[in-house]
Amino acid sequence: MSETSRVAFGGRRAVPPNNSNAAEDDLPTLEPQGVVPRGVNLQEFLNVTSVHLFKERWDTNKVDHHTDKYENNKLIVRRGQSFYIQIDFNRPYDPRRDLFRVEYVIGRYPQENKGTYIPVPIVSELQSGKWGAKIVMREDRSVRLSVQSSPECIVGKFRMYVAVWTPYGIIRTSRNPETDTYILFNPWCEDDAVYLDNEKEREEYVLNDIGVIFYGEVNDIKTRSWSYGQFEDGILDTCLYVMDRAQMDLSGRGNPIKVSRVGSAMVNAKDDEGVLVGSWDNIYAYGVPPSAWTGSVDILLEYQSSENPVRYGQCWVFAGVFNTFLRCLGIPARIVTNYFSAHDNDANLQMDIFLEEDGNVNSKLTKDSVWNYHCWNEAWMTRPDLPVGFGGWQAVDSTPQENSDGMYRCGPASVQAIKHGHVCFQFDAPFVFAEVNSDLIYITAKKDGTHVVENVDATHIGKLIVTKQIGGDGMMDITDTYKFQEGQEEERLALETALMYGAKKPLNTEGVMKSRSKVDMDFEVENAVLGKDLKLTITFRNNSHNHYTITAYLSANITFYTGVSKAEFKKETFDVMLEPLSFKKEAVLIQAGEYMGQLLEQASLHFFVTARINETRDVLAKQKSTVLTIPELIIKVRGAQVVGSDMTVTVEFTNPLKETLRNVWIHLDGPGITRPMRKMFREIRPSSTVQWEEVCRPWVSGPRKLIASMSSDSLRHVYGELDVQIQRRPSM
Questions:
Q1: Which candidate, 55, 242, 289, 346, has a CA 20 to 30 Å from the CA of 493?
Q2: Mean pLDDT for each 10-residue chunk of the chain (732 residues)?
Q3: What's this model's pTM, rounded to 2 decimal places?
Q4: Active site residue 189
Q5: For this structure, is 315 an active site residue?
Q6: Is residue 520 among the annotated active site residues?
Q7: Which residue out of 343, 374, 422, 717 is catalytically annotated?
Q8: Domains by residue range for the chain, with CATH
């Protein structure tokens, strides 16, 4: 054995770990039993001359297994379901004297008890849940088999052999890459752990290669399309490569719980050289800004070709790539967005916001942050490791936020368990529970070192949780799958259950929640367009018969969408006198020049208003964010929208700002219409328009989408999209 191939077993195991789908050792073409007598030629026995896998897109194997969309010329089937192969021999097959079987092998050290070496017996009838091959046709020298895999089979790329028994040993076909077979999870099979019983849901959560991601903020929800591209050329191999890079043991790759947990760690590069590097600091040197990506294909293919993490991602990019990974392997998956998502560093169900005695925010003490929104994924599977009732949608999150068992990953956590407060069940349920259920606690840090709880907002966090609707681009509200309505008895019970199972809530806020001030305060921010002034209106309402004087404080900040403040661009203090049973409005003008110079890529402004009633010393506090309306890219097409025909796509952008945009990149994508591409413009002057034309030749028919994005040094998160209906090629 050479130095390079020698493996240290450490005295504990007979074979090295089998953790690479790509690594392989050939099975011997001849396994003699004893000495072959002189004059006996093994080639005179039954010999295989060729194997046919019926692997074209239109063949029944791919159509019946819903794998005909994959751009891959190998056979791709789903586990637990039968498929057809044909074996040609050198003479007619005689079942009375000839014995053969099909073998499937994965990895370098195949073992039958690990599921990495699968001898498929020839049987008279196929049995549900078991590997088997039934002869369905014998014709001349050919035999056609119906092969059925186990619904618990490893998911990956298998090598296939045919072995023939002779009195003197086994003759086996030699290694042939053309007979390699991919086996995937099967949501159409009732015995598979990812079985989904609704056809429309399977079409949406497994077969749809274009999605919609919701972002912005709860009062101004914005959408963008995302190309998952799970069927594109090379993506399936890249998803298997991701598991290889994780050194995931092949024997665990049939378990969707393990696969999704490994995926959630590997889609981020934080501690394992995974797919995407996260960056939230608005500096994207030597990489692509997160807002510029239009889909997952470029990211995954670059990761495999470079063998290095790709720069850069933020939560919706991690979620988009993770969704591609899950759907490509056959696990039903969707992206969800949680508005006002708590990033609670110690999962104590409290977002502590510390105030100075004058009402100003104490940024040194305030460590928790509230994200305007946060995207994660849900994957559909049974959970045999949990009590009955906790299967179905599982929250999985690949954005690197918190360490879980030594790695940056999150989930799968049962959504049903989160709703009912059963945070004791693996994996990472307390963190997800806190993301949607935390209370906002306003605490005054006094100069003498004491802390006083001033106000509790129990409804701010997890305000709205949404996903794309089935069969359309609209929004589906799924808040009630994560939490009961505020104030319901069930909601209180779920919280008590979570506390019983170890979720921490160090401050008793019951009394604070019940005592209400005699004065209400709220404020509204008008919808604002990038580069224009906007107005903020604060309303004070006195519900008592007393006179009050109020000292109010406004802080306006440029924030990352994660709720972290970059810079305060405006602060204002004003006094208000309130007559009994009256209300008063205070208007504050925000000028474009105050915020434009410091904008971050999502153009998010955060306003924080605190007020102290001088007579009662009560503190009122409210915070809101607004996302400025950003100009869009315009996409146009001309020419026949037919498979195989040329059509011209034009992307157009007009600069609405008073400054020149520099280093402008426009990205264009359209699954089934064009490969992802991009073009650079050195600069776009104020009010000027640029156009980019490309000739595309669609290869997939049906409803499709063209998606474009633009990024520059000073303006990002510019999108455009166009729905197109691609017709089939007319038959001659």
A1: 346
A2: 42 76 89 76 83 93 97 97 97 92 95 95 94 95 97 98 91 95 98 97 98 92 96 97 97 98 96 92 88 96 97 97 98 97 74 81 81 95 95 96 81 95 91 89 88 84 96 97 88 84 62 63 88 91 92 87 78 91 92 78 80 87 84 94 96 91 95 94 95 96 95 89 94 68
A3: 0.90
A4: no
A5: yes
A6: no
A7: 374
A8: 30-184 (2.60.40.10), 199-501 (3.90.260.10), 519-627 (2.60.40.10), 634-726 (2.60.40.10)
